[in-house]
Amino acid sequence: MQEELIANLIEKYNDQCAQGRSEEEAYNFVIASIGDLSELTEGLKERHVLSSVSPEERKRSARLVAIAVMMYIISPMILIATSEMYGNGTLGLVLMFMFIAIATGLLVYNGASKPKYQKEEETMIEEFKEWKSKKQHEDSLSASLSSAYWLIVTAIYLYVSFTQMIWHYSWIIFIIASALFNIIKALVALGRRNDA
After folding, report:
1. What average pLDDT does this structure show over 11-34?
2. What range defines the domain where residue 95 resides?
3. pLDDT (average), residues 83-95
4. 3-state secondary structure the chain
5. How do residues 143-178 score in pLDDT, each as one tens digit?
6. Per-residue pLDDT at 35 exceeds 70
7. Residue 179 has what pLDDT?
8. Which residues 6+ apart lie within 8 Å of 128 measured at CB?
């Protein structure tokens, strides 16, 4: 947090100097934008930044996550059961991906429906609160999509392994999936850097 505060102050100072203010004016402007630091420590305890969510919101979120995880776990079982009982791997595959899609939708909805912080004034404290809220939201969404990706990869691995009986080669799916995952992460990071 200290590093973030210092970096933000330096950036504001440089911006003010670039706009033609003297070093002293830029310094005074940056110091004035900090506000009272006791506001920061109290502000971090506010509900929408770092404190815990209400019990109702926590129960709703836990329910959605539990349903999504259950659907992820059941999805490969549906594939195996339909293949064994009906000899129809295609139906099982369709049902498995439907369950995975619904579970992923639940996790994304859960992450996206959390309230976002809105700045009340132009101070560094408010900017930090907004940044912290945005980061928590992005981390939660990223974790949801990441878990969905790896569960889909596992389902594909199980499907290929059971239907083709090539257990000694099918593990390569995980290496390819890992490479794709890192490429996707790099592209997303590059996109964020270009937006900033």
Report:
1. 83
2. 35-195
3. 78
4. CHHHHHHHHHHHHHHHHHCCCCHHHHHHHHHHHHCCHHHHHHHCCCCCCCCCCCHHHHHHHHHHHHHHHHHHHHHHHHHHHHHHHHCCHHHHHHHHHHHHHHHHHHHHHHHHCCCCCCCCCCCHHHHHHHHHHHHHHHHHHHHHHHHHHHHHHHHHHHHHHHHHCCHHHHCHHHHHHHHHHHHHHHHHHHHHHHHC
5. 777 877 887 888 788 888 888 888 888 889 999 999
6. no
7. 92
8. 1, 4, 5, 8, 40
Give the position of tokens 């195996």.
80
Q: Is residue 10 part of a domain?
A: no
Residue with tokens 């506001």: 39
Answer yes or no: is 24 within a domain.
Answer: no
Does residue 99 lie in a domain region? yes
